[in-house]
């Protein structure tokens, strides 16, 4: 999967790419994606997502697994074609991608003394929170993926952070 994350087809266009990772034993990490670190990112974090305007890739290792479960979300036909050629198969049919929305992204907590400026502390969370550099107040764009038959939202795809 790390090779897919570093793919020139997926990373063309020069748009910003972000990562959001989580683990039970360490604080979540939200940062700009560094394709030079893609293999390390997927290996060190049991759960995460990498996203940009054209696509999102999510992975999760279940207990005892050596390979991650992976799902990709895209409305971009060239990205979809590339993913299918890489061995990805569609999950069901009848998906409707609802036009992107926007939501405020306000970092929790305050600057953590003795830590870099992008690390914040919040008393309700037992570990530091790491945000992208310069993220004081931002917006995130997203899309809903709904089941066309029921209208139920099944996925929320992150698109960008400004």
What keyword list fits this structure?
162 residues; mainly beta; 4 helices; globular
What does this structure look like?
With 162 residues, this protein is mostly beta strands. The chain has one domain (2-161). 15% of the residues lie in helices and 41% in strands. The protein contains four helices and eleven strands, in the order H-H-E-E-H-E-E-E-H-E-E-E-E-E-E. It has helices at residues 2-5, 8-11, 38-44, 77-85; strands spanning 18-23, 26-32, 47-51, 55-60, 69-74, 95-105, 110-111, 119-121, 129-130, 138-147, 153-161. The strands form three sheets. The chain has a five-stranded antiparallel beta sheet with strand order 2-1-3-4-5, with helices on one face. Strands 6-10-11 form a three-stranded antiparallel beta sheet, with no helix packed on it. A hairpin with a 2-residue loop joins strand 1 and strand 2 (26-32). The two termini are 27 Å apart. The model has no long low-confidence stretch (mean pLDDT 79).
